[in-house]
Automatic annotation (TrEMBL):
Residues 1-11 have a biased composition (Basic and acidic residues). Residues 46-64 have a biased composition (Acidic residues). Signal peptide: none annotated. Residues 1-22, 46-71, 223-254 are annotated as: Disordered. This is Scaffolding protein.
């Protein structure tokens, strides 16, 4: 029996069992609880919304109330705090780095401090361990083991020599610009591939295309800087004397114009005849039959 049936039974005076009464009462209580819960939730949502709107209004009012000077001061303080945080993080990272790699530094220092020598020593030690393993497996003598080690060293040297020769062949090729400075990286890349990569393939695998673009860009920048330093020559329509030459006097220029000769020819005649004055130049010119 639901709530409506229970109400009708009460109005007509019909008999209602205890179970039906309990079910009807439970339904009434549930309905009341749901109505009250919905009302409470709606009220809480309205309160939260009002609080949010009030907070936003307060923030906007505070920002509007700040003067430009106060805003600048606030921004500077914010920047200072940010720098402090960055400095703190940097210090913590450096400390973690030191703690993590301090033992590595000690090992490197104890072995001479030269990474290349340490790497070569590690390779040689690995070669000796491999030789000892093969000796134990195949029953080699000490002489056989030493012979194997020497053979491995010679093969490694020949491989390095071949790589160097190929790099020397490619270093003048603009498509492989900067390859000469990548010899160690290329050799290590080829070793990691167990000799599967060529020098060219190792170069491109190590980002050779970016290196080529960088080298070309640097060359262009050097050329531009070189051109900018060169003095510019400006061509002029009017005749001018060469740098370092003594200009002709106005009287000589007037006499040259009267005689129908150019300034250059007048200068040449004065230089050849060593005339110092206009009168000397006239006398020498008459003596030359002109």
């Amino acid at each position: 029996m639901d709530q409506n049936e229970y109400r009708k039974a009460r109005e007509t005076g019909a008999t209602v069992s205890d179970a039906d009464l309990q079910a009807a009462e439970t339904e009434v209580i549930d309905d009341q609880f749901e109505e009250e819960s919905d009302e409470v939730i709606e009220e809480e949502l309205e309160e939260v919304q009002d609080d949010l709107e009030t907070s936003e209004d307060d923030v906007e009012e505070e920002v509007e109330q700040l003067s430009p000077k106060e805003q600048t001061a606030f921004q500077k303080r914010l920047e200072r705090e940010q720098k402090k945080i960055e400095e703190k993080l940097r210090t913590e990272m450096e400390e973690q780095f030191k703690q993590k790699y301090s033992k590595h530094d000690e090992v490197i220092s104890s072995m001479g401090g030269d990474p290349e020598k340490i790497l070569n020593a590690a390779k040689e030690a690995q070669m000796v361990r491999e030789a000892q393993r093969l000796a134990d497996q195949n029953g080699w003598s000490d002489a056989d083991t030493q012979w194997y080690i020497e053979q491995q060293k010679q093969q490694q040297e020949l491989k390095e020599l071949r790589v160097q020769m190929q790099i020397n062949r490619l270093k003048d090729n603009p498509d492989y610009a900067g390859i000469a400075s990548m010899e160690k990286d290329i050799l290590a890349k080829i070793d990691r591939s167990n000799g599967a990569l060529t020098v060219e393939e190792a170069f491109w695998a190590l980002g050779g295309n970016k290196r080529v673009e960088q080298v070309k860009l640097e060359a262009q920048q050097r050329e531009i800087a070189k051109r900018a330093q060169q003095p510019r020559t400006v061509q002029r329509d009017s005749p001018s004397t060469s740098v370092g030459e003594k200009p002709l006097s106005p009287s000589v220029l007037a006499e040259a114009k009267k005689m129908g000769i150019s300034e250059a020819e007048a200068r040449r005649l004065m230089t050849a005849q060593s005339a110092q004055t206009i009168d000397e130049w006239r006398e020498k010119r008459k003596g030359s039959g002109r």
